[in-house]
Amino acid sequence: MAPTIAVLATLDTKGIEAAFVKQHIEALGGEAILIDMGLVGEPGTSPDVDREALIAAGGSSLEALLENPDRQEAAPILIAGATAILRDLIAEGRIGAVLGFGGTQGSSNCSAVMQALPYGFPKILLSTMASGDTSSFVGIKDITMMFPVSDILGLNPLARTILANAAACAWGMAQATVPLERTENGRAVIAMTNLGVLTDGTMHALKRFEDAGHEVIVFHAVGSGGLAMEQLMKEGHVQAVFDYGLGEIADEVHGGLRAANPERLTVAGQLGLPQVIVPGGTEHIGLFTEPNVVPERFKNHQHTFHNPIIFAPRLNAEEMCEVASSICERLQQTRGNAVMYLPLRSTSRYGAEGGPLRDPESDAAFYAALKEGLPGSVEVVEVDADAEDPAFVDLAVDRLLAML
Questions:
Q1: 189-403 matches 4-173 in CATH topology
Q2: Confidence of residue 345 (pLDDT cuts 50, 70, 90)
Q3: Looking at domain 189-403, does it have CATH number 3.40.710.10?
Q4: Which of 372, 382, 350, 381 is nearest to 283 (CA)?
Q5: Secondary structure (3-state) at 137
Q6: CATH class of the domain at 4-173
Q7: What string of H, E and C letters represents the secondary structure of 291-353?
Q8: pLDDT in tens, 126-176
Q9: Rounded to whole angstroms, what are the CA distances from 326 to 187, 257, 366, 370?
Q10: Domain ranges in the chain?
């Protein structure tokens, strides 16, 4: 069966480009559904889903929006309409990928739609904003962004090549045959967080879980990683959690680059998923800085450089207790099946014996605050070991396996 690609574009300004993309998809042997996300001007090519239908799916009418046209007011309606239409097409199995393109406004609208679509469904965004900070467009979803080099205005030798590449990308991805599905063979999918200062322990745990017959998805706990993990929990793709790296909490409390959001560390507990928690990597935060420059705020802190532009200051006892308080608050709604393992010698290799951020007194204050503030639904197990010690990891892994 030929793949069908949904194409999102404002056809009043991108009509000729959308028509070219559709023709190229059809030349490859696929089909295309043009969805018009425009508002004011006349479409430059005939849509398969016109703006009237899209706006109606978003809960309004074209007439109402044209009474006083405003991009900011119209955007949520256009996004809601396109999201509803695409979700229906995906549920009906009628499309295999979505391709959107545009400048600042078009990229913002298209990416908001794509962020609402399921993991694993191909999402391609050709955007003039792709060369730079793309975090607001990608969010925590698997969106593939392409940079068109030139503005997306008219056809020319460069534009035809880039548009054809984008069309071929969507067409090819739509033919992938590996859906995001869990095989019903008794194997659990375990979500695990990791940081670079915990990688040896993560690799040991990964092998243990795989040897036990389970599958593991490892997330880099730098803000987006932890949030993506919890979104996959909500969507039912995860059956258990080994939350080994909580540096995202430390960075949120103290303004670091790995910060997540207030929902982090709450989802597994609210869903009742089995979880083992380790406060790995909480003794420091990460900050972007000029190469090898210590920020004034942390002149009196122990510190190291994760790399020349990522500065890692050690948190003192008071700051660590603030992190502990935030962790405890997030776990208040946990409904059982949760155990926190405390590696009493260090929370990462930075804080281990001989490490650049060694501070046993701050660690002790941190652990005391955790034990005092954690709810009774979270069991606490203290182990005289470093976070990456194989013996410590084995204990934590064995406990999660027993819970499964």
A1: yes
A2: very high
A3: no
A4: 350
A5: helix
A6: alpha beta
A7: CCCCCHHHCCCCEEEEECCEEEEECCHHHHHHHHHHHHHHCCCCCCCEEEEEECCECCHHHCC
A8: 999 999 899 999 999 999 999 999 999 999 999 999 999 999 999 999 998
A9: 33, 17, 11, 10
A10: 4-173, 189-403
